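Hey team,

Filing this mostly as a record. A colleague (T.K.) asked me to run one chain through the structure pipeline before their review meeting, and I want the input and output archived in the tracker in case anyone asks later how it was produced. No errors, nothing strange. Just documentation.

Input sequence:
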Amino acid sequence: MYRERLMYEHRGQRPLSRKAFQRRVVRHAAFAALILSASLVWGMAGYAYFEGLPWVDAFLNAAMLLGGMGPVESPATPGGKLFAGIYALYAGVAFLVTVGVVLAPLVHRLLHRFHWDEN
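Output structure:
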């Protein structure tokens, strides 16, 4: 019978070794960093294009929104306001997804230890 490869081990399988688990955590953290980096670049490009902000100011606004603090400068143009609203909604979702990606291997390992039978 064909069995597809799963991202995580099944509850009947032995938990990963500590070294393999550490590699999994690093891979997840790298993916989370990729999500945040791409989101930051997208936000910087949007603020630079729609609001004409210098790259340093665009970085500050995008980073503050991704961090949940809110923008430093209020948008002045209609396009900038629309972009800022969409980016703010996206940043909230991106933050939650990133936290989920980072915590997934930790939560899985904890739950796997509760449900694993050594038999």
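Quick notes for T.K.: Residues 46 and 83 are 7 Å apart (CA to CA). The chain has three helices and no strands.
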